[in-house]
Write a structure and sequence with these properties.
This protein is globular. It is built from 17 helices and no strands. Helix 2 packs antiparallel against helix 3. It is an all-alpha fold and 408 residues long. It folds into two domains: 1-141 and 152-201, Up-down Bundle (Growth Hormone, Chain: A), CATH 1.20.1250.20; 204-402, MFS general substrate transporter like domains (Growth Hormone, Chain: A). The protein has helices spanning 3-7, 11-42, 45-72, 75-98, 104-128, 138-167, 169-187, 206-218, 221-251, 255-278, 284-291, 296-304, 308-336, 342-354, 357-371, 373-392, 395-398.
């Protein structure tokens, strides 16, 4: 039996993958539909930035609370609730757009709600995998989850563009809302044992939960070292590829070519997940951390060799490396962090990894104007390599294995 088929024989895991994939399809449709909905409404890139930023800020602000919720309540119940919340908020956005009653303040408010709901579901989904498969199946299980995510992203992005072009942004958002409703139904099929709930007097406060999560996060040097690496890496990589990539494309090989480059990265992610199903080194995290130096290649190629064949190869290789790391990271956390605090550790990880992304996006434009696009891109590549070397040379990172985690 293949590794993928092996983990899919567990019913709870099958429903988790199905629900997660459906949600990802909706999440890939939503940004495309929302962008054109706002541009149709006001025609202002600044308004679009405000709506998108509102969701991102709410997402980061609520992530730590989301980790507490995921560790306190049954995770399948949390995922059903957050999927329903996402369906309701996206249905409200769709109704406003379809009826012509949308305004920027209303869209900002609903984006805040949607970002908050996503902040609860993200750590919950990540911490849910160990509850649905036995310990030896964690690595292939994470690879299958990532394959579903990548497939859903490709399908959703393609469907989103087609839906908006064919029937309008409002209906694209309605399909997104329906997808979350379907995901909620799929999550209800997951059957997990219910641990005994602590008495009200024994339940710690929210601050105590945050402190406990912080102790588990900060007490593992390898965890915060990798998160610090990704604070730098995400800011540099996203700034280089998301902001300066389209600029370089406009000046050289064209916008259609940029679509192929982005698709190449997605293909690389899928190849990385397939490779992870077969390749299972015991110290996979150290290897994955070191491989993140490969993600400097897209920035280097954009800076010195912005030709389509070079960029397709560079972005595909970067995707493979990123996926191998992501699966190793999930496996390492799930194998070494106690299950009762896993979602909180994930939430600290996500806050640390994502918090610098807006700064990277904001800084690379002015830097490119000041010192040139090529110099800025090479600076981003250097930041990625230096952060990776610092993390990979840390003994605690290299020594992490995937031994079973304690249950509490």
């Amino acid at each position: 039996m293949s590794a993928a088929g092996g983990v899919l024989r567990y019913p709870a895991f099958r429903w988790l993958v199905a629900a997660r994939t459906v949600s990802i399809v909706g999440n890939a449709i939503a940004p495309i539909a929302l962008a054109f909905a706002v541009l149709d409404l006001t025609g202002s890139p600044a308004d679009l930035g405000l709506v998108v930023a509102a969701r991102s800020v709410a997402n980061v602000a609520v992530l730590l609370f989301g980790g507490i919720v995921a560790d306190r309540l049954p995770r399948d119940v949390v995922l059903v609730s957050t999927s329903i919340g996402a369906a309701v908020t996206q249905a409200a956005v769709a109704a406003l757009v379809l009826t012509g009653t949308a305004t920027v303040p209303l869209l900002v408010a609903l984006s805040v709600l949607n970002g908050a709901v996503a902040a609860v579901s993200l750590p919950t989904t990540a911490a849910m995998v160990p509850e649905t498969v036995p310990e030896p199946a964690l690595r292939p299980a994470n690879a299958v989850v990532r394959l579903g995510v990548n497939t859903g992203t490709v399908v959703g992005a393609s469907a989103g563009a087609a839906l908006v072009a064919a029937v309008g942004a409002g209906w694209g958002l309605a399909v997104d809302a329906a997808g979350f409703a379907v995901a909620a139904l799929l999550y209800t099929r997951i059957r997990l044992p219910r641990p005994a709930a602590p008495a009200a007097a024994e339940r710690p406060s929210v601050l105590a939960d945050l402190r406990e999560g912080w102790v588990e996060f900060s007490g593992r040097r390898w965890v915060w070292t990798v998160v610090a690496q990704f604070t730098v890496l995400n800011a540099a990589f996203v700034g280089a590829t998301t902001v300066l990539g389209p600029v370089v494309a406009d000046e050289t090989f064209g916008r259609a070519g940029w679509g192929l480059v982005v698709a190449a990265q997605t293909v690389g992610l899928g190849l990385g997940a397939l490779l992870a199903l077969r390749w299972r080194p015991r110290r996979a995290l150290g290897i994955g951390v070191a491989l993140m130096a490969v993600t400097a290649l897209p920035a280097i190629a954009l800076g010195v060799a912005p030709a389509l064949p070079t960029l397709v190869v560079a972005f595909a290789l970067g995707g493979v490396a990123l996926e191998l790391f992501s699966i190793a990271w999930d496996h390492a956390l799930q194998s070494n962090v106690p299950r009762g605090v896993l979602a909180r550790v994930y939430s600290y990880d996500m806050v640390g990894s994502f918090v610098a992304v807006p700064f990277g996006e904001a800084l690379v434009g002015p830097l490119a104007d000041a010192v040139g696009t090529t110099t800025t891109l090479l600076g981003c590549a250097a930041a990625i390599v230096l952060a990776t070397v610092a993390a990979a040379s840390t003994r605690s990172v290299r020594r992490v294995t995937t031994d079973p985690a304690p249950s509490a």
